[in-house]
Amino acid sequence: MVNRKHNLPTIQCTCGYKLLLLPDAKIMGQAIEQHTLEHKKKYGLTQEQTESLEDYLIAQVFKLAEKKPKQP
Question: CA nearest 46: which of 56, 35, 36, 55?
Answer without folding.
Answer: 36
